Amino acid sequence: MAGMSEEITAFRINIPQDRIDDLRQRLAHTRWPGELPGQGWEAGVPLGYLKDLSDYWRTGYDWRVHEARLNEFPQFTTVIDGQIVHFLHVRSPEPGALPLVITHGWPGSVVEFMKIIGPLTDPANHGGDRADAFHVVAPSLPGFGFSNPLAAPGWDTSRVARAWADLMKRLRYDRYGAQGGDTGSTVSPELGRIDPDHVIGVHVNNLGTFPSGDPAELADLTEADQARLGLMTTWAVR
User: Fold this and answer.
1) What burial letters (b/e) apply to 34-45, b meaning 16+ CB within 10 Å?
2) Between the N and C ends of the chain, which has fewer C-beta atoms within 10 Å?
3) CA separation (Å) from 63 to 55, 113, 176?
4) What gap in Å lies between CA 49 and CA 35, rounded to an integer?
């Protein structure tokens, strides 16, 4: 788990303008395919929808607005196990706040947390109880966002969890909680198992469960649950 350096470096998003211009030019010069008439979504993404989406990214989306919004949060990078890890670290104004590491999902990013960081770090300013305040640490999963690109393969759930334990140690948090959804709902429990002396609790908002295959286990499922299981099975075999 030892990284090349335990140094933590302040980070600010600043995408060069020539990269943004290049993306817009490439979108403008897209060579569009034909499509089967009258098939709609059954044959893939309809061409008209795709063109509208491309045009939005080319002419309607203002990256600088969103870049500035993200830069309102303190951001940092550090190298853990040979991988650059980007993270938000937003300390609460409450001195007794509990440190909390929150993990995003796939194919997401720390942008998922932009609306909750304020209420978590400063609940008193959002109609809550100041006793419920957290110091928030929101890392970008290796290979995602500004933790990209991966330096090497092998970043499974356990390795990510070990990296998060290392990160919280570097931030000098001896007692902390872990939360996550989607991919974060597998990383956060694993973090609790890997670092039980310091993780005081785990919360997930997406708990994946799978049947064992015993037909008796499925006998009492409701019609709605049967439909969900069928959809899950369909995606699994694809």
Assistant:
1) eeeeeeeeeeee
2) C
3) 14, 18, 34
4) 12
CATH top-level class of 5-12+66-204? alpha beta
> Cα separation of 103 and 144, whole Å?
12
User: Cα-Cα-Cα-Cα dihedral of 116, 120, 123, 126, to 10°?
Assistant: -10
For the chain, the structural domain boundaries read 5-12+66-204, 210-238
DSSP 93: S
Q: Count of residues for the chain? A: 238
- What CA–CA distance (Å, rounded) separates 208 from 211? 10
Per-residue pLDDT of the chain (238 residues; tens, 9 = 90+): 334 468 999 999 999 999 999 999 999 999 999 888 888 888 889 999 999 999 999 999 999 999 999 999 999 999 999 999 999 999 999 999 999 999 999 999 999 999 999 999 999 999 999 999 999 999 999 999 999 899 899 999 999 999 999 999 999 999 999 999 999 999 999 999 999 999 999 999 987 766 677 878 888 889 998 888 888 777 665 4
Pair 104, 141: CB distance under 8 Å: yes
Q: How far apart are CA 66 and CA 201, in angstroms?
A: 33
